[in-house]
Give the backbone structure.
Amino acid sequence: MRAKNSATASRTIAVTTTDGRPAGRGATAGNATAQPTDGMTAAADGPPVSTAGAGGARSTVVAGSAGSGAAPRTSGGAPAAPADPLPRGTLLAALGVVAFSLTFPSTAWGLESFGPWSLVAVRSTLAALVAGAFLLAGRVPLPDRRHWAGLAVVAGGVVVGFPLLTTLALQTSTTSHAAVVVGLLPLTTAAFAALRTGRRPSRTFWCAAVSGAVVVLAFTVQQSGGAVSRGDLYLFGALLVCAAGYTEGGRLARLMPGWHVIGWALILCLPLMAVGSAVALSLEPVHLNAHGVLGLAWVAVGSTFFGLYVWYRGMASIGIPRASQLQLAQPLLTLVWSVALLGETLPLAAPLAAVAVLVCIAVTQRSGS
């Protein structure tokens, strides 16, 4: 039947017959004839969907007309279940992990041509210019004033703090060693998220997350001979600032598109990084080669812009704790890149750690958060 009032447009109301079959044009309920709304198209609302209910009875789900604001409902009056955003969000977060896994090998390549301070400043400057071009092309308005404090946390954590501390660490540490230390990042991020957002993941989630962190930590200690170096201290500091940046960025990505978050965070750092680039390049020697240029290009565009863009969109879709656990696979991917791109020797314990980490990821992805 067609329902109208002064506040809403026309929409179709599903009517079922007493034997459970949807009423067609000729079937009636009371004195009203059930007919489809004129002009309803699949592009606007989608066609009615018939679903099976208990005991074989069927109900018809009909979308409200475009612009009505009404949620799709079943014939019994219950809202239709929304589409599950998990697969797409998980894919986006996983793409971010792959991009991040190339950061350490690319940084090692970049250090062949640039000093640590120059590399960090130039990568952030280039990434900010790319982000600025996208923001201008999209005519993106300035964020609300209430968002700038969060953007400052993102900028300090993932644009400046993490790149600087890890680059300093890689002067004395191998990429494979740095990768397994930073494998603690998922647990650190989940802890920050719990404190910042007030959400409390399930006990199963925490048990799996802690188990994954213990595996990574044991792997690190075994590979370093039980000693903690200056490079390790840099890496532990990088964990803290990056977890804070990820958490705040994931929160903001629920309020604005993910690429807006990283874009404005990069723009916020642009004046400082531009000046830092000029000063660092004048003080540190530069020896350009193919590896150095490719490494700089990837950490600027691939890791800093593209990686954070898809990462924040993934976190906004599936939640910060679950997305952070996908990063348990990041050190293992980095180990592969370290062997393939840098010729480093793969530790014998890596396959065992890989299996344990993948089990932890599977558990956390299926637990309530």
User: Anything to note?
Assistant: Residues 290-318 form the longest helix (29 residues).
